[in-house]
Amino acid sequence: MRGSDTTRDPCPWVILNDAGGAFCMGAIGGGVWNFVKGGRNSPQGERFRGAVAAMRARGPVLGGNFGIWGGMFSTFDCAMRGIRQKEDPWNAIASGAITGGMLAIRGGWRTASVSAAFGGILLALIEGIGIGISRLSTGAQPPMAPLPPSPN
Predict the structure, then answer these.
(1) Quick one: DSSP state of residue 7?
(2) I need a labelling partner for 76 at 20 to 30 A (CA). Which of 14, 35, 45, 58 fits?
(3) Coil, strand or helix: which one is 8?
(4) Is 53 helix (H, G, I), strand (E, B) or coil?
(5) What backbone phi and psi angles, to 5 degrees, belong to 131?
(6) Are 123 and 95 a contacting pair, CB within 8 Å?
(7) SS3 labels along 82-147
(8) What is the per-residue pLDDT across 29-77, written as a single tens digit (0 to 9) for each?
(9) What is each CA distance from 138 to 11, 56, 112, 134, 146, in whole angstroms?
(10) Is the dihedral of CA 126, 127, 128, 133 positive or negative?
(11) Which positions, given as ranges, span the membrane (predicted)?
């Protein structure tokens, strides 16, 4: 649980930061993925050239997809924080559901509903794992036994 974090930037900057970070993560990951895929699918003498061509063609596309998802998620997260006036895991879960639904709305209401449910469930799992890890890390230290009273 994030709690009330006063060191965090204001929402417009958070949205831009998250969108840019998601784009970079998608572009780098997509570049590596498509480099390997392009190298495997190229003929024997052209593997490196095919790998570089696939990386240059598809890496930025995947980065753009990640950037759009990250920007929309962060926008909805900031909106939920503003509407609810609190910062808790429910904001991220709702933001994941809204983002999933909005990105799939062109496929119709049924597709958008399934994507929204999937987005909400995915973010609930991520938030639940984060809460569990934070509880384990803070609760891992055994409580200290009280010291016996001093004779003085």
Answers:
(1) T
(2) 58
(3) coil
(4) helix
(5) -65, -45
(6) yes
(7) HHHCCCCHHHHHHHHHHHHHHHCHHHCHHHHHHHHHHHHHHHHHHHHHHHHHHHHHHHCCCCCCCC
(8) 999 999 999 999 999 999 999 999 999 999 999 999 999 999 999 999 9
(9) 29, 44, 39, 6, 19
(10) positive
(11) 115-134
